[in-house]
């Protein structure tokens, strides 16, 4: 049986690794030209009951523990006027509940655990059917089982459902401060070891420390439509002007927040936030399935990567348990995944709704510290 995985993200690589651990070969087809073709973004908090469980099944938990940052769980929650509502500092002996890891480090961990040539770089998915996978360069490959692990804008998804991600009224701009301890030690101390987060007035500013000394700063604008980047007037192609525009949008906010924006370099990344319908399902097919964001893209509140890792691990275990009956294995995996991912998506939707509230900071404080 030939297993083809489209997409070398956390879910696709976790699936390939768990299959490898269980003596089953798979090939991962990735459109990027190489593992270093682009940056992988910021930090991920890996949850004990989902992402960490997947890494245990993959035999990678010890290696993960050696590079994950428990102190990355620290959080400071503030209102726009600078009022500190919550400060959580992680003790040295705290449970390893949601440690942070750089996305690039997690990807390298998974890639390095796979046999050479498991990942075929530069293979952009074009179409599939009748057991043949076709690529943008005219090449093709055969498969018995095709797994779409190709993210939010999955093209494999169309083989199973016509569902498409919808805009959530949320757009964000991502910036960064490299080497913050050397270049801006005062801001480094203010941000701390984890996440520094201010919410209110239909906006949020989050600054998160990465393992390489970079702090990623993201500004979210809620109640905005999918055309916002084209109509808002933000000069994305002029970094200095874009920073000035963002600072102007924070008029009335504490000067500490605008200082973070002023300290950022010239990398400006726009992101529109979308999600698939909560509770999405499809009739099981014997030769194709989905994992991760391809299956259940949800608001970005910390669940997506964890669900993707666990999807990959549990699909790998299901296939290993039924090596002579892949259709039954896929059906069993999907039954469990639909229920689990649906619950995570509903929770993520509730949290996202809190972020859009006028008094978002107070609502998040109540979420973190319920009565």
Automatic annotation (TrEMBL):
Gene3D superfamilies from the UniProt entry: FAD/NAD(P)-binding domain (3.50.50.60)
UniProt domain FAD-binding: residue ranges: 2-164
Organism: Amycolatopsis orientalis
Keyword presence, Transmembrane: no
Name of the protein this chain belongs to: Flavin-dependent monooxygenase
GO cellular component term of the entry, any: cytoplasm
Ligand binding (FAD): 45, 103, 293
EC number: 1.14.13.-
């Amino acid at each position: 049986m030939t297993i083809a995985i489209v997409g070398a993200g956390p879910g696709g690589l976790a699936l390939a690794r768990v299959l490898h651990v269980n003596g089953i070969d798979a090939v991962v087809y990735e459109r990027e030209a190489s593992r270093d073709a682009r940056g992988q973004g910021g930090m991920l908090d890996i949850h004990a009951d989902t992402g960490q469980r997947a890494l245990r099944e993959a035999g990678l938990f010890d290696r993960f523990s050696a590079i994950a940052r428990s102190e990355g769980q620290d959080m400071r929650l503030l209102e726009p006027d600078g009022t500190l509502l919550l400060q959580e500092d992680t003790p040295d002996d705290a449970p390893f509940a949601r440690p942070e890891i750089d996305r690039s480090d997690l990807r390298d961990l998974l890639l390095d655990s796979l046999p050479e040539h498991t990942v075929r770089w530069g293979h952009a998915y074009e179409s599939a059917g009748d057991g043949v996978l076709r690529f943008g360069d005219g090449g093709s490959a055969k498969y018995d089982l095709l797994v779409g692990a190709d993210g939010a804008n999955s093209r494999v998804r169309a083989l199973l459902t016509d569902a498409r991600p919808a805009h959530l009224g949320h757009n964000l701009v991502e910036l960064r401060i490299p080497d913050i301890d050397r270049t801006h030690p005062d801001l480094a101390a203010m941000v701390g070891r984890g996440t520094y987060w201010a919410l209110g007035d239909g906006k949020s500013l989050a600054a998160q420390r990465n393992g390489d000394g970079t702090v990623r700063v993201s500004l979210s604008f809620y109640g905005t439509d999918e055309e916002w980047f084209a109509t808002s007037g933000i000069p994305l192609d002029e970094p200095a002007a874009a920073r000035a525009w963002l600072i102007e949008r924070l008029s009335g906010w504490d000067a500490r927040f605008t200082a973070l924006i002023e300290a950022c370099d010239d990398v400006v990344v726009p992101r529109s936030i979308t999600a698939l319908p909560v509770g999405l399902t499809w009739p099981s097919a014997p030769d194709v399935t989905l994992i991760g964001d391809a299956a259940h893209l949800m608001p970005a509140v910390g669940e997506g990567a964890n669900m993707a890792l666990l999807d990959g691990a549990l699909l790998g275990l299901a296939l290993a348990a039924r090596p002579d009956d892949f259709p039954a294995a896929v059906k069993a995996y999907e039954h469990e995944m639909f229920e689990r991912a649906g619950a995570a998506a509903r929770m993520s939707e509730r949290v996202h709704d809190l972020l859009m509230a006028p008094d978002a900071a107070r609502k998040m404080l109540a979420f973190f510290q319920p009565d």
